[in-house]
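hey so u asked for the seq, here:
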Amino acid sequence: MKRSRLAVVVGWILLPATPWAHPGHEGDPDTSSGQAANLPAPQVSLTTEGEYRVIKANGLPNHAIGPFPGPGCPNPISAQNYTFRVPLHPKTNATFTPLRMQAIGVALNGVPFDPGTAEYWKNDRTSGWHVEAIGSKANLGLDRNNAHVQPSGAYHYHGIPTGLLTNLASAETPKLIGYAADGFPIYAQTSGDASGYRLKSGSRPGGSAGPGGKYDGTYEQDYEFVGGADKLDEANGKVGKTAEYPEGTYYYVATAEYPFYPRKLKGTPDPSFHRGPPGGGPAGGPTQGGESGGRDGKPGKSGPIQRFDKNGDGKISWEEAPPPMQQNFSRHDANGDGFLDSEEVKSLPQPGQGGPSGIPGPISD
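ran it, structure tokens below
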């Protein structure tokens, strides 16, 4: 097994103001060591195992963080147990793969990139109006690294990771900052990179149809893709040559403007990025990104949710599913949120039917 490791800067530094800061964050508290003394040292390893790059980390960043818990984010940061896997030689698909409620990738320091939120208009997931973490009027407690903490204690980036960029020793441009779930690299924005998205003109529908008001970036649905020859594609990506890929590759760009990180991928995301509930996740670790669970569902008396829902949240995560169900998990996960709820499990074969798409019978927990 070929192994390569990333040197991690252990310790916490005070970050100065940075041009990567987003509008609306000028008044944030200065990033500081805060509770660093109460946390273990950051740990991350990148190894090559066969045809895959494996990233193992405790999810603690190698830079200063904001005060957590703090205004807008009541959650304290804690060490995680991440194991992510991405292909060394990813392939592009003919169509983009939309992502919902999961980490889209992982930084070189082992912190997930997770641009989505759990907030919706009127707290209604079915409303179709998904609140943005950056540019929104909602205070979600982002620090100067454009990051905050989930209820599981997982620190994650919603925008350009300023502290990570400060600590990167590479003088190359663009700077490699991590890998997407499909294996393609993610680079920090340069002057030649411009998002293909823009704010819609006019106003949102009001009343029961929407929140009303001007399209101002509060919601994901405030934006539309217009593209252009000099713009990044729908996944915030492009093809180009970099120091790490001198022959050229498709890669994603972390931008200071929407969508910040890709909301869809050009390749196929590895299942290790499927979000599991607290206590789940690959390698027995905590949540693998994402702000909260998918749609709620009531477990039946003896159905698959009752049998495989180990944490009692009323749905089945990829990690909770038995191997036969995992093989075709995405086929049954109709809304793509990384869970099978009470409606989606109805598409599973009944016990005794067998077959590769669901539950062979009988199966013990």
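The longest helix spans residues 162-167. The two ends are 33 Å apart (CA to CA).
lmk if thats what u needed
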